[in-house]
Structures are given as structure tokens and as C-alpha cells.
From TrEMBL:
Full protein name: 4-alpha-glucanotransferase
Assigned keywords, A-Z: Carbohydrate metabolism, Glycosyltransferase, Transferase
Species, as recorded: Raineyella fluvialis
InterPro entries: GH, Glyco_hydro_77, MalQ_N
Domain MalQ N-terminal beta-sandwich: 69-159
Gene designation per UniProt: malQ
Amino acid sequence: MVAPSPQLHQLASDHGIATSYYDTMGHLNEVSAETLVSVLAVMGVDASTPEAAAAAIEKRKDDRWLRVLPYVVVMRQSQERVVNVHVPHGQPIVVTVVLEGGEIVPADQVDNWESPRVVDGVTLGEASFRMPTGLPLGYHRIRAQWDGRSVWAPMIVAPDRLELPERTWGPMVQLYSVRSDASWGIGDLGDLASLVDWCVVRGAGYVLTNPMHAAEPTVPQEPSPYLPTSRRFGNPVYLRIEDIPEYRTLTRAQRSRISKRRRQVKNDPQTWEHIDRNRVWPAKMKALRVVHEAERTPERDEAYRRYRFEQEEGLVHFARWMALATTYGADWRLWDAPLRDVHSAELDLWAAEHADEVEFQMWLQWVLDEQAGNVQDAATAAGMPIGVMGDLAVGVNEFGAETWANPELYARGVTVGAPPDPYNMNGQNWSQPPMRPDVLARQGYAPFRALVGTLLRHTGGLRVDHIIGLFRLWWIPEGRPATEGTYVYYDHEAMVGVLTLEAQRADAVIVGEDLGTVEPYVRDYLRDRGVLGTSILWWEKNHAGLPLEPEWYREACMASVTTHDLPPTSGYLQMAHVQLRQELGVLTRPVDEELAVEEHEQRIFLDACRHRGLLPADFQLFTAEQLEARRVRALRTAAELASRSEAEGDPADPGSTEQTAAARSESAEPASVPPESTAVTPVDQHALRQAVEGLYGYLVQSRARLLNVALTDLVGDTRIQNQPGTAWEYPNWRIPLSGPTQRPVLLEEALADERAEALAEVLRGQ
């Protein structure tokens, strides 16, 4: 590794690029010069030599002086903020704030003793102005005037903090996995409405869904809801077709054909055993095209026009990309050059020639927005304080709608991931392009504002996956392993400011997934801004390595026993994750050691429940004989796998499973899928239910404002929804909601089970 020069160190720091970082073990790691040069190049900065780096440092200083106003000013409502302004030296200047409503508020000039600077032969001076405190929340503008000229810049005034929600509980659901008798082989907004109704009766305050962002309109479809083509717009596969008002105006023959198609898809064995988007989506698309042709009432036409007006240019760009993807495929790199340019005249001509398809894509978003609004309205009308809580993914598909519509915003030549940690010593590559922090500022954070604002239109809360990404992201240069990345910092005051402002306007709750490697100040900062954190029971420990006492849980958090990256609690207690990881070859230590560690972890938490009277004093989930039998089976499996591997030759490195979306889409199905059942350890179902209820009872005794229960735990599911570190080796994001026997169950059947009632009763005691 080549050590960075002093100039490279300074230049990287100036651009918010970390030159060193602490890993999860507390070790300081220096970032190589090669990585720094590559990341700077992505930002358009040449640092290939010390001389180039020195020149870039001076250019950056000059560029700051050439800007009259900053790209954007973000401040909290009670915060005092001084803004520096640059004009020809000696020129008198006036700075005012023009509020959203048009009112003009003057800014006071304060002393500034910075010496003038000559840039391109012009002597420039710097003046400072104190922004007024107590400005109304909103998106305002700053105006600088001198010598008959004026320059404008956006100004964002965010709330000091959000109010924390009242204590309540709710389920977390992977909506696509939740099918009912009325849905099309995949969970939809009608199913979400049914779940909301069930929750209302049982005193739940919210329902947390997976990200429902837009996927590509072609097959094969990307199964992961965390790798969308657009985060701002939604996935029409979640539409309940029969609830669209125009469906009722179809002829009897048209409705009959649609019903027949729904039954064919729903009853297909392949859509029953796994969520098969590649079969469901084309069938629903054909039906939606029929409904789209139905005549709308004048009132609904007006509502449609209003929606299109509110979503402005962003909806048009998205609809055009969807229409293009439907015609030419979902990878815009393969389109003709004029169609890759969102501003080209040729694209305008193409869109005019295909106006019907573009309009159809906008209509899909409208009816999706309408159905989501109906669910949320019904939830709040029934008394749920939050209602539906959405989920915001970290990023987008590298060659999807967002990167096409705003290519300047997304960095090319790098992807986002995570550095090595004890769970993955190779690091992680998520195959997503990061937004450039410098371009976000130049664009006044408008893309982030539009994204959050759209997601909060019809939700009472938003979970932000990997909220640490608003502070820093791990950038990995193209062609390098995840171990050779570095952190790039974002203006978290601006990012969190936009997030809290949009939440304040929507009267919504924000929950940040703040797990993993987190700098010490981040959780305190988010708490002070009224953003809730995330606490997972298994990872909450005190300094002695024992379960954190409930009284010491954070109040400003959403607490749960499990996450979508862990098995449901029943499966976790039966070691489904260990057995699956063994079969997939992704264990990082011998299986008997892994089992011993996991058994210890589970034992100390169950002991903690016993000590608090949440489990019987003599409670025992497994006997010593059962534990020994499990170890014997695991060792026998290890020997069989080793023998098979030796016979077949060295397998591919299981740690190198990250793929781009394009590579993943080459095959609609995994080459080989190990059984998700993974032969979990036999256990007494009554004892298992007791253990699950005891663990959630432990959380009920905590101070957490939000308690979260996996829907899979409510119904006794054991199957893992997503196995990190795998792509097509396991059917990630395609596991249907199932019961204790691992047989898929419909929502009606699942919620009628006494297991769900009993666990809801535990949480209702909060």
C-alpha cells in the first residue's frame, strides 16, 4: 500500500474523504493513496500526482471565493448561522431572506476580517451576514444584491427536534410475503389494509412495511426491495386491482377474465412455494392495462391531473424511463445514445410518439398513491397514532430510473458497501452507486427533499435503513475489493435537516436503523433531533457482556427481538441461521464453535427472562441430550459437505457473492437452492411459544417508545427471509409467510391463530 502524500491527505479531507478509520475492533486503519486518488477522481478531482493534488487544493479555494453565496444554507430554527458572501472587494452588498410566502427578512452584516483574494485577476472580498433566528420552517431563498446585480441561493430552515411518539407497538411486515385469498400470489395493499384492521382491534399503533420502492417493469425482476430502480416512486405490483374504482366499471366479461388470471397465478404451485414476481407481475400488468382503458369520472380525472401537477418533472422522468425500459430493457446503458440523455430532443420526440405508454406509467403511480392513501386514512381514522410506517432503502440500482434521470448526482466508478467486520471479514459490496455529497449541495438537496416528501405523503412514519448513510458511506472503487474502500462524509446537518423538516410537515415519526459500525456522536445527535434509533434484543448488552437490563434501553428507539436479516425468533432459537449458513458455506468458524457461541447467547437472554419472571423458574427450551444431538448432526453435515466439496473441486469463494443488478438478472431463478427448512432442531412448541413471548415481554419492560414485533413471530414462522452474504444461493426476499411447520399460510389463517393473539396480548401490556 502506497502512503498518501501530505497534499493528497489535505485534498481528501477537504472533500470529506476519510484518510483513516476505526474498524469494529477499535483498530485505526490508514486508507491507501490508490483508494484516495480513485475516489477523488470520481468527484472530478485530479490527484494523480502531488503536483496535481496541490493545484486542486488551490482551485478548490478559488472556487469557494468565486461563489457569491453558498450552494445552499441549512439551519435549525433556533440556530444562529453566519453566511459568508463574496463580491468584488469594496462593493457594498445587501443580503435578505425571502420566505416561502414572499415575506422579506433582512440579514445583519457582522464583522469579517478575512483578507481579499485575487482570483482570475479580480480582487474579491468576503462579507459575513447573520441569518435571523426564529424563521418559520420551510424552504426559503437567500438573495444577495450589489451594484445592480443579484444572486439567489436556497435556504432550508429545519426544526430543532421532532417530538417523540407516545409509546406503542406494531408489527413489521415484508408485505410481498403476506398473501390472502384475494391477492395475486404476492402481498398487496389490500392485504396491508386487512393487517391494519387486525392491528387496530388489538391496540397496535403502527404497521412497519418493507421498502415498497419501484422495481424495473421487466422480468426477471430484482427480488430485493432494497435494490430498487427508484426510491421516490412505488412498485405497482402491490396494487389491489379489484380496489381500483374503474375496475367496477368494466364489463362482466372483462372482470371474469381478470379473475381467471388471478386464480391461475394464485393457484400456481410455483407462486405458492415462493414469491414469484416473474409470474405475478406480467399477469397483473395485463389486467392493469385493461383497467387503465376504462373511462374515469370527471372528479377522478381532476384528482389524476392534480397528482401529476404535484409530482412535477420527477414523475415525468420516471414514467419515461419505465416506458423506455418496457421497450428496450431495464439497463439504460444499452439504449441508443440520445435516449440515454434525459434532456435530449430525441427523447422528447420518442416520448411524444409513445405518449400512451408514458401516461400509463404515470397512471400506475397515481392509483398506487391513492390506494396507499386510503390505507393510511383508514388507519388513522380508526385511531392508530402512526398508521403505516414506510421504509427507505439505502440506495438504488446502478442503471435504473434515478441514475438515468439525474446522472450527475450519482458517482460513477464506485459502489456502496461496508468495511470488514466480525460477521464478514471480506467486507460488503452492495452494488449501488452513492449520491455525491458535493452535487447534493449544488442541487440544494432537492432530490432528497422530493424523495422524503413523496414517501411521507401517505405514511405516519419512515424507517431509514442504514441511517448512518446520512453521515458517511463506505465507497468502494470499481475493481477493488470491499476491504479497499473508505468513508465519504455527507453534510448530516443538511440531510437530517431535510428529513426532519419533511417529517414535521407530515406529522410523521422517523426511525433510523443505526446498527453496525457507528461513530460515537451519531446516536446522541439523532436523539437530540428527535430521530428514534433501533435496538435489537440480541445485540443489546451491558459492559459485562450480559443482556442489557430493560431499564437501560434507550427511550428514543424502536426495540425488537429480530430483524429481516435474522431468522424469525422461533427459527433463531432453533439455530436455523447456523444450519443454513453451514449449508451455504458462509460460516466464519467451525460449526460446533458457532453452535456453542449461539447457545451461550440464547441461554443468557432466556436466563434474563427467567430472572424477571417472564419464564418459569425451571424453564428449559432444550435438554442436554437435544443439544448434543444437534451438535452431532451439525458435525456430520460438515463432514458430508467437506466430502462433497472435495469430490466436486474447490467451490467459488462464498464470501464473493456480491453481484451487480445486471449480473443477478441474467437468471430468473437460483442455480441451486438449499432447503430453507434446514432441518431445525425439534422442540416442544409450547416451550418455544413461551420463549418467544418471554423475550418480547423483556422488551415490554424497557423504556423504548416503539415496540416492534415481526409478523413472522406472531405466526410462529421459522424461515429466514434474507441471508446476508448471498445472492442466488438462497431465495432471498421470496419466502412466503409460513407457519411453524414451514407450510405457507394465507393472511386470514395466520391472524386467526391463537399464537398471534397471545403475543399481541403480551405487547398490548406495554
